[in-house]
Amino acid sequence: MGFYQRLCEKLKGKIPENLFEKLPRTCRITGKVAIIKLSRELEMWKKEIGNAIMEILPVKTVCVLKRIEGIERKPIIEVIAGNGTETLHKEHGCIYKIDVSRFMFSHGNKAEKLRIISLVRNGEIIADMFAGIGYFTIPLAKLTKAKKIYAAEINPESVKYLLENVKLNKVEEKVEIFEGDCREMCKILAEKGIKADRILMGYLFETEKFLPYALLISKKDTYIHFHFLSKEEEIENMMNKIKQIATDYNAEISIKLVKKVKSYAPGIYHMVADILVEKC
Question: For position 43, which CATH number holds?
């Protein structure tokens, strides 16, 4: 029996059955926290729904996702059953400490993480320019034989969790965290003569303005994984923009792959382009 059917069974006699069709069909589970969306018609029965979910799922808290705000994608949630929004989430054998009231854990990036992991060669030096709480940094450090990962994060709250996640996964020796603007990290690495074999640019808003700084720490055969938002018909424009930036900075590149990571909004996709630096 699926989630929806089990929820209906638990709520028989507790909410009007004519509202069953409005119940959530699925829920997102991050660690021990279940996150659902709830229609306005069910607002007065949210506690009953939350308690029912607590009975059918092994979670400690049930939250309603109200909306996501700003370019930082901050979730606005309401706890409707249980308590505590901080949890440990496990994925690919890695542990992430996360507070779901502060950060969204993107389950849609799971396949992309595995893809990047499969590409990493022994001894690579990697720069993660937008590390967050360690979404990519942690699996790259724990599941590959990369030599070093330089992880930049500008949000102090994210840095706090990134530090904890590095310790939880026992990868302190492989990860060096830079708290601040990734552009400053790139300049510091360049001044030290450190070049990356692989660069992650996992940001979605005007990512191209950070590309010159990625090129600053690139060398021949560096791979840059460039994330961006785009409509289908605008992808080629972004590729042309990337090529022009490389030309402006006396770099030669080739774009080896462009693929969808997941849907972001109606008609808009989270995309990634694999850029090979041929001369820099």
Answer: 3.30.300.110
Q: Which residues contact 96 (CB under 8 A, 6 or more apart)?
A: 31, 88, 89, 90, 105, 133, 134, 135, 138, 161, 165, 168
Residues in Cβ contact with 55 at an 8 Å cutoff, skipping those fewer than 6 apart: 10
Q: Are residues 74 and 115 in the same domain?
A: no
Tokens of 68: 């996501």
CA distances, 201 to each of 4, 126, 271 (Å): 37, 11, 11
pLDDT digits (tens, 9 = 90+) for 45-77: 999 999 999 999 999 999 999 988 766 678 899
- Asked if residue 115 and residue 79 are part of one domain, the reply reads no
Do 68 and 76 meet the contact criterion of CB atoms below 8 Å apart?
Answer: yes
DSSP state of 36: E
pTM of this structure: 0.91
Residues 125, 194: contact at Cβ < 8 Å? yes
Mean pLDDT of the chain: 94
Residue with tokens 């049930």: 62
Query: What is the spatial order of strands in the sheet that 125-128 belongs to?
Result: 175-179, 148-153, 125-128, 198-201, 223-230, 268-279, 252-265
Q: For residue 9, what are the domain limits?
A: 3-84
